[in-house]
Amino acid sequence: MIYEMTIQIRVTDMQTGQAWYETLLKRQPDFVPHEGFAEWELLPGCWLQVAEGTRAAGSGPLRLGVNNLDDERERIMRHLQVEHFEIHSRSEVPVRWATFTDPWGNRLGLFEYHNEEDKAERMRIC
After folding, report:
1. Per residue, what are the HEC states of 13-67?
2. List of domains in the chain
3. Which of 14, 38, 60, 121 could form a disulfide bond with 107, CB atoms 3.0-4.6 angstroms apart?
């Protein structure tokens, strides 16, 4: 039985990387056990680890669900100097999504449910 998960993203400069992810996530890390490592619990039992090191090739994207994809894209472009990135949608997919990269080349993304009832159901499960 799987009861918890973590995903690790690596950055070459931990001080800059931690600050970048603090801005992305709008908060300080939940756990900093030692130099070169920080963790955020994004949902109960779901942890994002940012560690100093070399990026793993071909990983990602890590996509995060948001309430307003358009607003979050604008905030990320403005506050994190991320280049403009497109929002995608397909009729058979229940979400709109977008993908961008952090300054270290890690692929990240956001998504937003088309239907408020679908979003409410996913939030209820969490």
Report:
1. CHHHHHHHHHHHHCCCCCEEEECCEEEEEEECCEEEEEEECCCCCCCCCEEEECC
2. 5-125 (3.10.180.10)
3. 60
Minimal CA–CA distance to 94: which of 75, 117, 72? Answer: 117
The per-residue pLDDT for range 96-111, each reduced to its tens digit, is: 999 999 999 999 999 9
Long-range contacts, 20-25 (Cβ 8 Å, 24+): 20/80, 20/102, 20/103, 21/48, 21/50, 21/102, 23/79, 23/80, 24/76, 24/80, 24/102, 24/108
Helices 69-80 and 14-25 cross at an angle (nearest 10°) of 150
Place of tokens 């949902």: 43
pLDDT score of 122? 75
Strands 5-11 and 46-52 come out as parallel
